[in-house]
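quick one before i forget lol
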Amino acid sequence: MTTTLARIIGGRAGSRVTPGNPSFVGPENPQWKRNFAAKYWEPAWQAVFVGGNDSYLPRVRAAGFDGVYLDKVDEYEWFEEHGE
């Protein structure tokens, strides 16, 4: 199973994901439309992914998967280089 941040957040928030909305969403990758950099160290991001029974990770586990693959965990480098 694969998904994107936009699908997860858009589904939870019922709104369109854009850079800065929610606050932990960074710029869109021009080579991969609807894929955004994420500030995964922010509490708001962590709440979506591991913040309780309604967050993403417990729902993946409940569906019978053993875990998830998080791509771009070096994204912090982009934010450091661009002063964000």
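fyi The beta strands are 25-28, 36-38.
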